[in-house]
Amino acid sequence: MRLVVVSNRVTMPERGEKVAAGGLAVALRSALEQHGGLWFGWSGATSAEPATSVSPVKHGKVSYALTDLTESERQSYYLGFANRALWPLMHYRLGLTEFSRADYAGYLGVNRRFARLLQPLLKPDDVIWIHDYHLIPLAAELRRRGVTNRIGYFHHIPWPPAEVFAALPFSSTLISTMTAYDLIGMQTQNDARNLADGLVTLCGARREGNRVRAGQREAVVQAFPIGIDVEAFRKLAAASVRAATQPVRATTGPLGGRKLVIGVDRLDYSKGIVQRLEAFGTFLRNHPEHRGEVGLLQIAPPSRTDVPEYAELDRLSDEVAGRLNAALGEFDWTPIRVVKKAYSRNALAGLYRRAQVALVTPMRDGMNLVAKEYVAAQNPEDPGVLILSRFAGAAQQLGEALIVNPFDTHEVAEAIRTALAMPRSERLRRFERLYATISSTDIAWWTSRYLAALSGLDVPSGDSVPPGTPKLPRGTRRSGSPAKPARSSVAHGQPRKAGRDFDPVRAKPLPNAPSAR
Fold first, then answer.
1. Active-site residue 156, yes or no?
2. Roughly how many angstroms between the first and final C-alpha of the chain, as a whole number?
3. Residue 365 among the catalytic residues
4. Is the pTM of this model over 0.90?
5. What is the pLDDT of residues 178-226, one digit of tens each?
6. Catalytic one among 134, 155, 156, 290?
7. Domains within the chain, CATH numbers bracketed
8. Strand order from edge to edge, sheet including 357-360
């Protein structure tokens, strides 16, 4: 079996370049090297004319096939439909969703061209693994071109309920293309259920357990919660804690005995950064005894700066931080530091280990790996406390965190107080269970489990963690009972009678939308 991975962006390593530890890219590259494989996608560059063919370039056991986009395609497919229509919609933000028929046509056009470029590179026994919302209709386009290989899809962000997704024009047409996949992986049981319900409601598909049938096609919709390379990140944090001293001083001033609360996110409205700043301000107002004793470091590198909503968030976060610092700060203490640049994984690992509290409070998130990285980075003898949004996919696994509603700034403020006051015995008990969970469901487990299901070797019945209790970091003394495997299943329910029998592969090609907005 050869593995073919398709993603929106592909970064081809230079010869001799060392790949950073951890991350999805490392896991996929490892899987490709294990099976021998091809990685196909957008180079990130633009060109004057669309490519008519691609020539794979081999690095080790992995071949890379990259194509440029035209500037028009980048605007419509990437900045337009993917990031101004699908991204806010998937995150339940209907008020920010902007639909343009021209952008939709560009999105469909790029997926057609990807299919056209990829098809000649495929071999009969290839297993194809397509990633994320940029490429939802790609399998249907490949099927129309006669591709019969097993094709899987993994959706890295949330999938909303049918009534939310239905607000998107052409929603039934777009969601119907999902049944061209053999296996659809989602982050959580809730996401899997939402997608399956959407296929039933919007397309008249039939559902039996985690299998959804539309016409002659049947897809398995399954939750596969993504993980991290726990052991590698643990070692990185232990080695990097001294290296983190300089970034901390550069951003918060010398801490001395002060405690550190940390947040790390892309500057994105789904991450709840402004609400987090307000919650920290509420904490200091309600508990003035902590003033001068604790500071919040929010690392928020900008992203998608071409999208107006992100530029507005950039301005607003500065405004809120400035207002709170002016009202609550002292001449020798600044309560909030917002740093809008990216740090290396080494520096972040050390900062996580140094921080007594992590604020991971997105308004909506598919999984959120910062939560898992924070747990992996902790000193097993004196761990910090994770405060986690109930709307992050990670909350379905990490129940020993302090779970909060990010829309309630007072609740988050009280969680900060609780975390800072939590005795070591309680922190140890929570940490042991959190660490057991993330090490049982790490990135290698996720990759192998998904590929086994896609290859037809195994179709798991749920997203529970493996049995048994994994080893804790060296030197850890257990403070309580071992973690229990999480219990969940995927997309179960009574099949509904289909209103119509729609087969996206046999249907006519998706329409070219008019160019007018």
1. yes
2. 45
3. yes
4. no
5. 999 999 999 999 999 999 999 999 999 999 999 999 988 999 999 999 9
6. 156
7. 3-223 (3.40.50.2000), 230-440 (3.40.50.2000)
8. 336-339, 294-299, 259-264, 357-360, 385-389, 402-404
